[in-house]
Amino acid sequence: GRLEQLGAAPAAGQPPEPDIVSGERQALVSEKAEINAVISQAQALSIRISGLIDKIGNMRSELFRNLLTKRYVLSDALSPQVFSDAQDEYTNLYKAVSSWLSFAFKFKFQAILAATFVALGLALVLLVGGRRLFGRVFEADPSNEDPSYLSRLSVAFWSTLLPTLAVAAFLGSTIFFFNYYNVLRGDIGLFLNALATAIGVVFCVNRLTNAALEPRLPNWRLIPVETGPARWLVRLTTAMAVVISVNTFLSVINDKMGSPLSLTIARSFGATIIVGVILILMAMLRPFKARDGSWRPWPAWLRYTALALGLFTIVAALLGYIGLALFVSLQVVVTGTALITAYIGFLSAQAIGEEGAFANTTVGRWLSAKSSYEDTALDQLGLVVSVAINVMIVLVFLPLILLMWGFQLGDIQAWAYKLATGINIGSVTISVTGILSGIVVFIIGYFLTRWFQGWLDGSVMARGKVDTGVRNSIRLAVGYAGVALAALVGISAAGIDLSSLALVAGALSLGIGFGLQNVVSNFVSGLILLAERPFKVGDWIVAGDVSGTVKKISVRATEIETFQRQSVILPNSNLINNAVGNWTHRNKLGRVDIKVGVAYGSDVKQVHAVLLEIARSHPMVLKNPEPFVLFSNFGPAALEFEIRVFLADVMNGNIAQNDIRFAVLEKFSSEHIEMPSTPRAVVEAHKPKAWPTDDDKIEADFAEQEQIKAEAEAEKKRLVKSRKTKKPDPD
Questions:
Q1: Is the pTM of this model over 0.85?
Q2: Quick one: 482 and 604 in the same domain?
Q3: Can you give the CATH number for the domain in which 604 is found?
Q4: d(CA 539, CA 546)
Q5: Closest Cα to residue 447, out of 476, 490, 489, 486?
Q6: Could you tell me if residue 504 is inside a domain?
Q7: Is pLDDT above 70 for 561?
Q8: Alpha-carbon distance 549 to 542, whole Å?
Q9: Are residues 307 and 444 in the same domain?
Q10: How far, in Å, CA of 224 to CA of 212, rounded?
Q11: Higher-pLDDT residue of 622, 105
């Protein structure tokens, strides 16, 4: 700081510093001492606060343990006096609610109507909007007799979540607007909050069990139980939720009304006994039907778990551990509902992430219709959606479950804040918020790059009639540059200092020098190919033994599709360092050579004229340069000719060769021009080393002819003799 800029004070025996500098130094030293004192006080206060927080947490834990382990005497709770206390409390509650209702309807009637209608409107917007947005995944379709597992999971999850959110929105917004318009009194506000919570829990449990068991639609059930047991399971589960919710609502009333302890114990005792009995009934249920008509029970682990929980709550309540029994009963309903809902969500996410599943969803079909996404891209997007759903479920249900198990909301918020703002591991700070921000920025940059690529290619270069190869090179260059820029911006947004990457880059340079030479060579070669463009996408090239059409040029390798539809991946360095033939570099004009052999003794001028006529008559053969026929050689078994024609598109060489060969056979037959009797010398095509035909052994056949020269000479003499003795054709 400024004190460091002034430097050290003069030592003894040195000339004194100016008075202005000395005064500035003393002021800075005093200011530094004051700041250090404040920092020390803040640190001490922070340590004290941390100690108090730990002490409060320990006290809460001790209170929670005492609540669960405290044993109550049941004799007072089961005495007739309890009924008298309950009647007195009901009378007091009735008076409190009646007085509030008379006040509210007399002075706040318009506010009540406004709050109710606004809350109802919000709930309807959420419900109707969810139906329109999610459509098929909201309700089970009775006409679908064989829905997929993903469809059943989606319907169960969303048909539970959306209506529950709509009911929660209605109840929560109603209470909010009642408070906003000062409609609620303090005690009535507590009662209404407890009642809204009870209604929400019962509704959620009922929707979840109906969605999972579907008593009316057996094909949509997640659990393969029979219809009768499914109805009983829905009733028992809903009844258990009603008992727990009513007990929780009454506990709020008891606390506010100052009810005697005996009434609280009696209420909790009755609720736990009922829940235990319901659990035992559910465990004893036989929901599965075997092929022989007999009914089978639940799996052993599930049946014994439900029996153990039911017996535990009943025995704990009978022994006087009312708090423990009530806590277990509450967690069976509330935590069980949350875990089952989360589990269905996890199963849905897993099903969406399977191969081909996301493409069959409503969103997948919409993306496939509105964009150029292929099945592979949709599968990858399905994995992203699957991960996002899993993260969302954890973020929503984990805090709820922690709250149900006695954790305080402030503690959960503090943990979440610490996780989001940064966790220090040594000198490294990991911030979830920063990482998520960097990922979001990179994704936005990636999609902007793809959009700009499409706009540049489809709107600008397409209208400018830019060559396809140039368009592809520009599009690739823009894509690589955009993704690199998005990555740099995302890293910066994540809070990572780019200057700190210099050390990493320096360390990597050593590895690049030894182990990554080929990778760097291919990368640089790819950049050279994109810049110089010795070939482009769509060109027909010959590289060594590989011949085919260029399908894709990337910075590492080039994809070539042969004429047998085989994809060959060639490293770019091979294409730079070795000779590459390009049949369509400047244009697609090319020459096709076709070898034809005729028997010795044939009229060579007639053969020449016939072959030239055939070449000129073919529609693919250009007039300029014009075709010509070459009398190329006296072969061992034939007089060899070459038909040389030029095509506007050399890619059609196979078609032209095939047509000309057929025409040669037909014309020779009509003109009585004999061809050699050795089949290997009938027709031969001169082609490049990797010409894309199926007759790849013709050159080898000619090599074999050298071994039968003696036989060929004898055949030639016989043909000459037969030609001399043949009568002339009357035509």
A1: no
A2: no
A3: 3.30.70.100
A4: 13
A5: 486
A6: no
A7: yes
A8: 9
A9: no
A10: 10
A11: 622
Q: Could you give the CA distance from residue 699 to residue 599 in angstroms, rounded to a whole number? A: 20
- CA 452 from centre of chain: 23
Say if residue 600 is in the same domain as residue 480.
no
Instruction: Report residue 569: phi and psi, to 5°.
Output: -100, 115
Domain count, the chain: 5
Return phi, psi of residue 624, to 5°: -145, 115
DSSP annotation of 18 = P
240-254, 426-440, 582-596: which range is least confident on average? 426-440
Domain that holds residue 134: 81-312+322-328
CB-CB contact of 201 with 128 (8 Å) = no
460 and 539 in one domain? no
> Distance (Å, rounded) from C-alpha 491 to C-alpha 508?
18
Residue 243 within a domain: yes
In three-state secondary structure terms, 420 is helix
- Edge-first strand listing for the sheet containing 683-686: 628-634, 639-647, 590-598, 683-686
Q: How confident is the model at residue 90 (pLDDT cuts 50, 70, 90)?
A: confident
Strand partners, 575: none
CB 328 within 8 A of CB 312: yes
| CA pair distance 223, 214, nearest whole angstrom | 9
Residue 54 forms part of a structural domain? yes
Amino acid symbol at 556: R
Distances (CA, A) of 692 to 561, 583, 661: 12, 12, 16
Taking the C-alpha atoms of residue 560 and residue 491, their distance in angstroms, rounded to an integer, is 35
Q: For residues 529 and 487, state if they share a domain.
A: no
Please write the tens of the pLDDT for every residue from 677-729.
654 444 443 434 444 444 444 444 444 444 445 555 655 555 555 544 444 44
Tokens 């000129």 belong to: 616
Q: Using the 3D structure, point to which of 328, 361, 393 is the last residue of a domain.
A: 328
Q: What is the largest CA-CA distance in the chain?
A: 141
Six-digit token string for 503: 């050390």
Q: Which two tokens stand for residue 661?
A: 């060969």
681's CB contacts (< 8 A; 6+ apart) are 597, 635, 636, 637, 638, 705
**Domain end: 464, 496, 528, which one?**
496
Residue pLDDT, tens place only, 97-121: 888 888 888 888 888 888 888 888 8
| Beta strand segments in 76-227, E | none
Side chain identity at 717, as an amino acid letter?
K
The residue among 149, 199, 151 whose CA lies nearest residue 174 is 199
Report the pLDDT value the prediction gives residue 103, as an integer from 0 to 100: 82
**Closest to 612 in 3D by CA, of 594, 595, 598, 629:** 629
Which two structure tokens, joined as six digits, stand for 235? 């009733």
- Written as six digits, the tokens of 373 are 């996404």
- Compute φ and ψ for 423, nearest 5 degrees: -115, 125
* Percent helix, percent strand, percent coil in the chain, to nearest 5: 70, 10, 20
Q: What is the pLDDT of residues 502-558, one digit of tens each?
A: 666 666 666 656 656 677 677 777 777 777 778 888 888 888 888 888 888 877 788
User: Angle of helix 375-404 relative to helix 362-370, nearest 10 degrees?
Assistant: 140
- The CATH number of the domain where 556 resides is what? 2.30.30.60
Q: What is the mean pLDDT of residues 441-465?
A: 82
Is residue 563 within 8 Å of 517, Cβ to Cβ?
no
Domain identity same for 181 and 293: yes
Least confident of 518-522, 573-577, 582-586, 589-593: 518-522
140-151: b (≥16 Cβ within 10 Å) or e = beeeeeebeebb
Tokens 């076709």 found at: 594
Q: Do 666 and 721 fall within a single domain?
A: yes
CA 624 to chain centre: 57
**637 domain residue, yes or no:** yes
One-letter amino acid of 221: R
List all residues 6 or more positions away from 540 whose beta carbon is below 8 Å from its beta carbon: 547, 548, 549, 582, 583, 584, 650, 651
Please indicate, yes or no, whether residues 88 and 198 belong to a single structural domain of this protein.
Answer: yes
